[in-house]
C-alpha cells in the first residue's frame, strides 16, 4: 500500500516510468512526499539510523562472504576490476551503464524535478544530489529549498578571492581550483568539531555542513577563475531565487542563453557520479577515510581529476577532433576519416574519447549529450562531424583489435556542446567536470562518516615477494 502511495505522489508525467520501476525504490520516498517541509538534513536524521541498522545486520550475516578473487594481473594492472569498495550513490554496470540510486540517466531525466520557473526539461543538479544522498526522488519544493540554501551559502571568504586574483593566468585552471578548495578548509566545521572532541557518532553532521558549504561556493570559485583567466569583468551577484545551474551560468556570463543553462543542468547532473572506483571518487574517499575534512578530501580528488587519463580527457578529445577537422575538413568523407584514424593508431597514439575502463557499450552519458545536441543544435557542423565519427570509429577500433570497448565515452561529446555555445576555453572544461563531481563524492563522504567507514589500508606486495609466493624463478 505504501508503494502505491509513493507512485501516486509522482506527477502524471512520471507515472509511466514509475510503474516500470521497482516499488522498493519509492518506499522511502513516501515519507518524503508526505512531509514536504523536511530539509535534506532533517531527512538524513531520519535515514541514517535506519541505514546504520541495515548495514550492521547485513555485515553480521554476510560479512564473511567472498566478493571476488584478486589476480597478479590485477595487482599490476591498477587494481582494475577488484571488488573492494562501498559506494552508495551509484553503480556502474559494464553493459547497462550508470545507475544513480537505481535510476538510469533517462529515468532520472523523467522523474527528477526540472526548473519550473523557465520551463526547463533537464533535471536539476539539486534534485540529483538529493537522490544521491537519500536514495529518494525529491519534490519540487524540496529541490527549491535546496537551491535557496546553496545560494545563501555561496559567498567565498575575501582571502580566497585574493588568492585566486593573485594567481598568474598561466596557472592551469584546475590548479587554481584545487588551491581555492584547499583554502576553504580554513572554515571547516568538521576540522573545528574534531579538534574540540566531537563523538564519532556525530561525525556526519559537520561533514554535511562542510559539504553544503563546499558545493554552494564552487560556482563562485569556478567562475572567478574563468573570468580572471579568460574574459575579465566583475562577477555578478547570485540570485537567491534561482537554481544552481542558472546561477553558475550567470557567473560565467551565459545566463541569457536558456539553452546553455539547460546544458549546464544536464552536464552537472550526468558528470556528478560514476561509482567509487574512478580516480577522483576513490581519492576523495581514500583521503576522507583518514578523517580529512571534505575540503581536503575533495581537493585531493580534484588533483586526480586533472589527469589526462581522467577528467582532463574531455579537453584532449576536443583538441583531437578539432585537429582532425583542420587536417581533413569538417565535411571529410568516410574514407578520409578512416585513413586519418589508421594513421593515428599506426603511429602508436590512441583515439581519445573511445573506450572505458568498465563500460562495454556506448556510455549513456554520451547518449544523453547526443540527444541534447539533436534537439538543440542538429545542424552544427562540428556536431555533424562527431556524429560521423560515432558511426565510423567503433568499427575501426574493432578491426584494430586492441580496444575492449570501441564505443564512445562521455568525453567524446561534451566539448562539442560547450564549443557551440561559446565556452571555447578547453583548459577550463575539467573545472566544469570538477564542479559536477563534487555532488557525487561529497554525498558519499556524508555516508562514509555516518556509517563509520574506517581508514582505508589495502595490503601491498613487492615483485620479489610475489615471485617467492608463487615459486617463480
From TrEMBL:
Pfam families per the record?
Answer: Citrate_synt
Recorded GO cellular component terms are: mitochondrial matrix
Coiled-coil spans are none
Gene Ontology biological process: carbohydrate metabolic process; citrate metabolic process; tricarboxylic acid cycle
Gene3D superfamilies reported for this sequence: Citrate Synthase, domain 1 (1.10.580.10), Cytochrome P450-Terp, domain 2 (1.10.230.10)
Asked if the record carries the keyword Transit peptide, the reply is no
Superkingdom, natural source: Eukaryota
Which key words tag this protein in UniProt?
Answer: Transferase
* Presence of the UniProt keyword Chaperone in the record: no
Q: Which catalytic residues are annotated?
A: 310, 356, 411
Q: Name one GO molecular function term.
A: acyltransferase activity, acyl groups converted into alkyl on transfer
Record-stated family: Belongs to the citrate synthase family.
Q: Please report the name of this protein according to its UniProt entry.
A: Citrate synthase
What gene name is listed for this protein? PbCsb
